[in-house]
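ARCHIVE CARD
Drawer: 12
Card no.: 0347
Subject: one protein chain, sequence and derived structure
Cross-reference: see card 0346
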Amino acid sequence: MATVLEFFAEIDWSDVAQAAIDTLTMLGWSLGFTVLIGLPLGIVLYLTGQPRLLHAPRLYRLLSLAVNVLRSLPFIILLIVMIPVTTCLLYTSDAADELD
């Protein structure tokens, strides 16, 4: 128990507060861009759908493709970020290295 208290005693709480402010700032900017870009895109995508007011199949397909590609980007970024973790845990980043 003493080691946990010693660990927390060594933390610079002003750095933690600054990191929390930086995190909330990044969250706010990303939320703003999401609302600014995503909301109009979603509305146009909805209105150009099959039985809707502005039925436009080509525009709908193009916007749908763009949305589906953009939705996969966070997962691709996660895969790239996880490469060092995989290397650390398995001592390799490529299964072919074990065959040699």
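Annotation on reverse: Residues 44 and 98 are 50 Å apart (CA to CA). The first helix runs from residue 2 to 9.
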